Amino acid sequence: MNWILSAEEIQSGDRNRVGGKGYALSLLAKNGFRIPKTVCITSDAYHEFVLRTGLRERILLELHRKDFKEMRWEEIWDCATRIRNMFLTKPLPDDVAQEIRAAIGDRFRDKSVAVRSSAPEEDDARSSFAGLHESFINVIGAESILKHIRLVWASLWSDAALLYRQEIGLDVEKSSMAVVVQESVAGDRSGVVFTQNPNDENQGIIESVYGLNQGLVDGTVEPDRWIMDRTRNAILTHTPPARKSWMIPGPDGVRLAELPAEKSSHPPLKPRDVGLVFKTARQAEESFKMPQDVEWTYDGDSLVLLQSRPITTLRSDKPGDERGWYLSLHRSFDNLKDLRRKIEDELIPGMIAVAESLSAIDPVKMTDQALAAEIKKRWEINHKWVNIYWADFIPYAHGVRMFGQVYNDAVQPDDPYEFIDLLTNTDMASIARNNMLMDLAGMIRNDQDLAESLKQGDDSGLDDKFRLLTDEFIDKFGDLSCAVTGGKNCVLGTGPLYRLLLEMAKHPPPAGSDKKLHRIDRLHQAYITSFDDDQRAWAEELLELARSSYQLRDDDNIYLGRIEAQLLTAVQEAKRRLKEHSDEQAPKILKQVLAEVDFGSISPTSAPVPTASGDKLQARQLLGQPAGPGIAKGRARVIRKHSDLADFKYGEVLVCDAVDPNITFVVPLATAVVERRGGMLIHGAIIAREYGLPCITGIPDATTLIETGDQITVDGYLGIVTLGDTGL
Amino acid sequence: MIPDDQFRQRLAELFRSQHLATLSTHNEGQPYASLVAFHASEDLKRIYFVTPTTTRKFANLTADNRVAVMVNSSTNQASDFHKAISVTAVGRAEVVIGSDRDSILDQYLAKHSHLEEFVRSPSCVFVGVAVNTYYMVKNFQNVMELHLGP
């Protein structure tokens, strides 16, 4: 079988084998346009690979672990990550590899190439696949090209593609991917042309940047923009940007760098070039007989076309469709570095300062009117920070994903989540809180009298050291009586905190994570040495960023929780005052403000509904995502409402809807964690890994199918919860 | 949560689509498996099959009537791992006698008409398994149990 066709060899019947991009390039070459040296790895090679390696079935199994409708975007990312790792760790069958290697070696030798996706359905007039599949630039050498071909194949199942699986007709049995391998052109001016403005059919648009096109395509470099008159091939308007940066070849393909001063003062294209670029693109439009979106670059003074595709209307996400928002979380490394500076230097200190300034104001001493105003103010402050959380903190979590992908590409481990071990053992705020709890429990453990008076609910005779530490704890983290994020019902007082401490004091302190430091060293070594010398500093920098992103994934909620706790304190005071009066006499202003800020009642997770007949339906094995390795057995404690936490006993399995940071304080008591919400990088999984506990996430009905008191076995290797007796 | 009726509907669909089941019996601790042509009652409380009285399975279930019956939708393809559903029923087997035998036999033959001669042979008996629990496996490792009421 011929797996490889050069652009010149591609015939009209090959469209499905070479994909939209490959086919368009072959047409450009045939019509006399200059394109880089290009070959296509046909979709036959993809089919051969997934059939002969058994990957087709493994992908099917992965995609059917759970109903797609029940998957969160984080789980879809996990699913795509596991599939990507299958492609990375499975070598090509020898004969296929040999043939591709020989053809590539002949054509490109040690020259830098771009390895691009070319899905058969892509770039036709009906659909836009932009951004769904991956392309790589600056790839050098036959082995690296072979690896990147596998990565492009894997991107057929990228998280973005899985999200839009229905629109693009993604189907394991039928879908395939061709790959375009194209000699790199290190253009110093690049851009795109829309031969027809989607908003005005008489106009065209040219956008151009210095350096490579990637900065323009992903939005990190703002381009010069010209609006063209289609009939006269004349410039109508030119909008120059600030021109601060450009994309140049770098260790991960491209690198954002400061634009040299001599370039920033004038546009990348002279008026004569603008005319030539537009004229050339219009000729491409004539060849394809429809308006085109053409990517181009200048190789010295010679214009090279990189790709051409029909202009398609952009995806219009319906209201409530968050896929576009999710895809916007895929940030560039430089973008994440900026975000880190903002978060660490401005936002976190800002959150701490706000929480502190609010805690200095005592709502108990306020008049009803002042209290109502204070609640409103705190609600607005809280609301503002929740918005910041979505706009800045959530995207920053992408740092962990970016590192995971780079780690997996570099190390190619069997376990696609091995990288998490390199991120743990950081100083997370929730761990600091739990350590304080442990200290308090230790004091109770060593002091019978103290334990006795706490059991009696008498805190009058507590010794100063214990009281001081307790006050410090409550000051920092609250008294654990309110759900920190999203909680609306609180029981005032330190009762729940003391109950938890007494339970902790009954048992020896947990050993914590038994991660061997030398294992982390070994992983670190494997990661760093997989890069060339000149890329290692960048690899370290990325690891550093990922550690901060990982740590913040938990801390941000704690900090946000401190602000919310201040809101709740004021709300509790208002509720207390309302209770003191009959309905008619209750201060109206307080009633009104509580209704306005929506602090009514909460609806806890529902308990299971018995079946109508005398039959009894129950779960035996529930399949989720393995999120923390290990196997453990214990009595289930199902958290359906916040107060269930106070009854948590040592050695129980924590079963909950979602581990929020206020739930994590019982984790040191738990023997395993089971969570309905799915994902490898969610709080439950992170905190369980920190304590070395088996953890399973993403079991759709965990809190309804499992009852408190059920004996359950948690297999954190396979992601299986078994109810009832097991052989363990 | 999978409601009771959804579970039952899945069972009924599987039983309609499949003709053969694996019957497990045992003799003094030694398990034994055999293939039988089955039919399930509409209320799913019983699973029926026919066997000559000279068989090992009949000897076994006469000695101890605790049996298991497995029905699955696998097609001997790799895709079975994500597509197939497998159901195991456990219960007690008894030879069907009495007034409703003929009507049940008619239902059985409606499904397995080619077995008429076999079924009517004097050396064969019609056996019904009174099911007490169903175990359903899907998505490779998801297992739900339905314990039937009296």
Explain this structure.
- The complex is a heterodimer of chains A (728) and B (150).
- By secondary structure, chain A is of the alpha+beta class.
- Residues 483-489 and 600-606 of chain A have low confidence and may be disordered.
- An eight-stranded mixed sheet of chain A has the order 14-21-20-16-17-18-19-15.
- Chain B is of the alpha+beta class.
- Helices cover 28% and strands 43% of the residues of chain B.
- Chain B has helices at residues 4-17, 56-63, 80-83, 101-111, 116-120, and strands spanning 20-27, 30-40, 46-52, 66-72, 86-95, 124-138, 142-147.
- Chain B has a six-stranded antiparallel beta barrel.
- The relative contact order of chain B is 0.20.
- The A-B interface holds A 54, 56-57, 60-61, 63-66, 608-609, 611-623, 701, 704-705, 718, 720 and B 1-4, 7, 78-79, 81-83, 135, 137, 139-150.
- Strand 14 of chain A pairs antiparallel with strand 7 of chain B, so a sheet runs across the interface.
Provide tags for this entry:
heterodimer, A: 728 residues, alpha+beta, 24 helices, 44% helix, globular, B: 150 residues, 6-stranded antiparallel β-barrel, 5 helices
